[in-house]
Design the sequence.
C-alpha cells in the first residue's frame, strides 16, 4: 500500500474507531445506530482494500478475513457477513440460492449459517463441531488463510459481488396489495407493503428499519410482545428475515423500532422493482383485554439501507409516509371468517318404515349430518341431541343404547333411559377430542340400537309393529361444544342444523317409494269436458320373510287413515294444497312389473314374496264440478295397504307413504276453463 493510501486508511479507521467508542456507552435507543455505523466501517475498509489491491482486514486466500468476534445462532451484524463469505468459498456453502448464497451473503447468523460452520469445523478437525464461531474456530481460520497466499491484483473499479452498474439509488412506494389489518392468533399476515425500484445500477438492500406504535384502550397492554411473536421481512414472495419483538428498542413514548438485517438484490429498472412486506406473526394466545380492533397498532417504514454496485452503503428515507394503521390481533375463534357449519348428510334418513329384527337387535340411523370447520382447525368433546318414541312406555322398551358414530368408529354411547317416559336427552361425551382440520368436513351419525320386535319391560308396553322413534330435536350446531384448536376458545360463529324424521319400525311389512309420474290435461278449452290425468308409479318392497298381498284398488280420502280397507289411498289437491272435490274422479290401480296377480272373490291382489319388490301404477282422472271455476291440480298418495294372506276376512294394514311431499305429482295445466 502507498503512503497516501495508508494515510487515508489511518484517517478512516481512526474516525470509525472514535465513532464506535462514542457509541459504546449510548442508551438502548441508539443501539441500532451503532450497528449501522459498524456496517459502514466495514464497507469503507472493503473499498480501501479494493483500491489498494490488498486489504486491511483480510488475510491470504479467498474469503479470508481477520476475524476477532465470537458469534452464534441468532446473532446479527458484526463479522457475520464475512463468516458467510468465508464458508461459501471454503466448501461449506451456507445456501445454494437466495439469502446466504454466494454473492448474497447476509449479516444474520441463522440456522443455515450454523449448519455451514459445523460442516467446516468437522472437515477441519475442530471438536465439537457445534456451529459455534469461537476462539478455536477463528484460530483455525487464521491458520488456513495464512497457508494459502494469493498474488496481489491490479486495482479495479470498486464493485459489489453480483451487482451491475455504477452508483445507484432507490425509490420506495407504498402498496396495499395483500396487506391485512386483522391477524389471527398464531398466524402471520403481511401488515405493511412497499415497492423498491433501483436506478443507476443494481443495489442490495441490507437493512429495513421499521417502527410499531400502539393505540390501545386503557385496559390493554401497549407492549408489542403481548401481541406479536415475530416481525418478519418478505421480498419477492419469500420470507428473508425475522426478528423477535423483544429485540426491538422501545423509547420513552412506547414506540418500538428496529433495523432488521436482510440481503435482497434489486435489479436496475422499473420492470425489476421488488415487493417488500413487513409481516406480523401473532402470539398463540392473546389476553381478552388485548383482543380485537379497539387495540390496534401502526406499522411504519422508517428507513432502508442498501449497498450499490460501487460498494457504497447508502440510506433512503421514504419521501412520503409508508405506514398502515389499525393492525390488530384477534382470537381465531371469534373471527367472522371462522364458522362451525352443520349440514345434512347424504344418508340422513327420510320418514319411512324401517325393518327391524324380531329376534335380535337392529341398528337404526336416526340422523346423519356433516360438520365443517371453516377458516380454522376446531375440536369438540361434547354433542347433545334428543329422541322421542311412540307406542311404548319407556325408552328402554324399544332401545338398548344410542351411539354417536363417525364412519365405522363409535365415538360414544348413551344407555337408554329406564324410567317411564318416551323422550330422552342424549349427551355424548367423547373420551378423545374430535378434531376437524381447517376447512375439513366430516360426517357423523346418531344411531339407535333397537330391541327385537316384541321386547319390553315387565310393566311396560311391548315394543310392537308400527311403533316409531325420532331424533325429535334436530341436531343443531349450537348443541356442540366446539373450540378453535389454536387458542382453545369457543367458536362464536355457528351455522346450520339438520331436520330429522320419524322412523316407523316393523319386522314384517312393506316399504313404498315413488319411481315415476306423469300429468296430462285433455280438452282444456272445453268447459265440463276438461279433465286431468295423474299417474304415479309406486315400487313396493316386502321386507321380512312373509309374502304380502296388496288389493289393486284405490280410495279417495282427505288424509291418511290406517283403518280403512283397500289398496292405495289418495287425494286430488288444488293449487293451495286443499283437497279438491271428488265428484268427478275415477281411479284405477294396475300391476306394472314384479309380483303376481291373485284374484279372490272378484278382487285382484298383487302378491309380493318376502324380500321382493313389484311396481304398480295409480291412474287418476279428475274433472272439476261443472260450473265451478277450474284451476291447477296435483295428486297425492297417502298410503298403501297390504294383507298377510288371501283370506277375505283378513284385515288390511295400511302404511303411510312418507315423506308426504315425495308422493305428490307436479301441477297440471288449467283444467275446466
Sequence:
Amino acid at each position: 500500500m502507498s503512503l497516501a493510501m495508508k494515510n487515508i486508511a489511518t484517517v478512516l479507521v481512526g474516525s470509525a474507531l472514535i465513532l464506535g467508542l462514542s457509541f459504546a456507552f449510548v442508551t438502548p435507543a441508539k443501539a441500532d445506530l451503532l450497528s449501522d455505523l459498524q456496517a459502514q466501517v466495514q464497507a469503507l475498509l472493503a473499498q480501501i482494500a479494493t483500491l489498494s489491491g490488498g486489504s486491511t482486514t483480510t488475510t491470504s486466500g479467498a474469503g479470508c478475513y481477520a476475524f476477532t468476534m465470537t458469534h452464534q445462532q441468532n446473532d446479527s451484524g458484526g463479522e457475520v457477513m464475512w463468516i458467510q463469505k468465508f464458508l461459501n468459498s471454503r466448501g461449506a456453502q451456507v445456501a445454494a440460492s437466495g439469502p446466504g448464497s454466494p454473492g448474497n451473503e447476509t449479516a444474520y447468523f441463522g440456522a443455515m449459517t450454523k449448519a455451514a460452520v459445523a460442516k467446516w469445523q468437522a472437515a477441519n478437525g475442530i471438536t465439537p463441531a457445534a456451529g459455534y464461531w469461537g476462539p478455536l474456530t477463528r484460530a483455525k481460520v487464521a491458520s488456513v488463510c495464512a497457508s494459502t497466499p494469493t498474488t496481489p491484483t491490479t486495482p479495479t473499479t470498486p464493485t459489489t459481488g453480483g451487482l451491475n452498474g455504477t452508483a445507484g439509488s432507490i425509490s420506495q412506494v407504498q402498496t396495499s396489495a395483500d396487506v391485512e389489518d386483522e391477524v389471527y392468533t398464531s398466524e402471520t399476515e403481511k401488515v405493511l407493503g412497499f415497492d423498491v425500484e433501483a436506478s443507476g445500477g443494481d443495489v442490495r438492500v441490507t437493512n429495513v428499519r421499521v417502527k410499531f406504535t400502539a393505540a390501545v384502550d386503557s385496559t390493554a397492554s401497549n407492549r408489542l410482545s403481548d401481541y406479536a411473536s415475530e416481525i418478519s421481512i418478505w421480498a419477492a414472495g419469500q420470507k428473508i428475515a425475522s426478528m423477535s419483538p423483544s429485540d426491538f428498542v422501545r423509547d420513552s413514548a412506547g414506540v418500538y423500532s428496529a433495523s432488521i438485517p436482510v440481503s435482497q438484490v434489486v435489479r436496475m429498472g422499473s420492470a425489476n422493482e421488488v415487493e417488500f412486506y413487513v409481516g406480523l406473526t401473532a402470539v398463540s394466545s392473546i389476553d381478552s383485554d388485548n383482543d380485537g380492533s379497539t387495540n390496534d397498532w401502526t406499522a411504519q417504514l422508517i428507513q432502508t439501507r442498501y449497498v450499490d454496485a460501487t460498494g457504497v452503503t447508502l440510506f433512503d428515507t421514504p419521501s412520503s409516509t409508508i405506514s398502515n394503521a389499525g393492525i390488530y390481533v384477534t382470537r381465531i375463534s371469534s373471527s367472522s371468517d371462522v364458522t362451525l357449519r352443520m349440514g345434512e348428510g347424504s344418508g340422513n334418513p327420510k320418514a319411512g318404515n324401517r325393518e327391524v329384527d324380531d329376534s335380535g337387535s337392529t341398528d337404526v340411523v336416526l340422523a346423519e349430518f356433516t360438520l365443517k370447520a371453516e377458516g380454522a382447525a376446531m375440536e369438540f368433546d361434547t354433542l347433545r341431541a334428543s329422541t322421542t318414541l311412540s307406542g311404548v312406555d319407556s325408552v328402554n322398551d324399544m332401545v338398548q343404547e344410542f351411539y354417536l358414530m363417525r364412519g365405522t368408529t363409535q365415538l360414544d354411547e348413551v344407555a337408554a333411559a329406564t324410567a317411564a317416559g318416551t323422550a330422552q336427552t342424549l349427551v355424548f361425551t367423547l373420551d378423545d377430542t374430535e378434531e376437524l382440520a381447517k376447512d375439513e368436513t366430516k360426517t357423523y351419525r346418531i344411531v339407535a340400537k333397537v330391541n327385537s320386535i316384541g321386547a319390553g319391560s315387565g310393566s311396560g308396553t311391548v315394543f310392537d309393529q308400527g311403533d316409531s322413534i325420532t331424533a325429535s330435536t334436530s341436531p343443531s350446531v349450537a348443541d356442540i361444544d366446539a373450540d378453535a384448536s389454536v387458542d382453545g376458545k369457543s367458536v362464536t360463529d355457528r351455522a346450520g342444523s339438520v331436520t330429522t324424521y320419524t322412523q316407523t319400525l316393523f319386522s314384517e311389512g312393506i316399504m313404498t317409494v315413488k319411481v315415476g309420474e306423469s300429468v296430462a290435461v285433455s280438452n282444456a278449452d272445453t268447459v265440463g269436458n276438461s279433465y286431468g290425468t295423474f299417474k304415479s308409479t309406486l315400487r313396493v318392497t316386502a321386507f321380512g320373510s312373509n309374502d304380502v298381498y296388496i288389493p289393486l284398488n284405490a280410495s279417495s280420502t282427505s288424509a291418511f287413515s290406517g283403518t280403512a280397507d283397500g289398496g292405495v289411498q289418495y287425494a286430488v289437491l288444488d293449487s293451495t294444497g286443499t283437497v279438491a272435490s271428488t265428484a268427478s274422479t275415477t281411479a284405477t290401480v294396475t300391476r306394472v312389473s314384479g309380483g303376481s296377480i291373485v284374484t279372490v272373490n272378484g278382487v285382484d291382489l298383487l302378491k309380493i314374496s318376502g324380500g321382493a319388490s313389484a311396481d304398480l301404477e295409480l291412474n287418476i282422472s279428475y274433472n272439476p264440478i261443472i260450473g265451478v271455476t277450474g284451476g291447477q291440480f296435483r295428486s297425492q298418495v297417502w298410503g298403501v295397504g297390504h294383507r298377510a294372506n288371501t283370506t277375505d276376512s283378513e284385515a288390511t294394514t295400511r302404511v303411510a307413504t312418507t315423506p308426504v311431499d315425495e308422493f305428490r305429482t307436479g301441477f297440471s295445466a288449467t283444467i275446466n276453463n
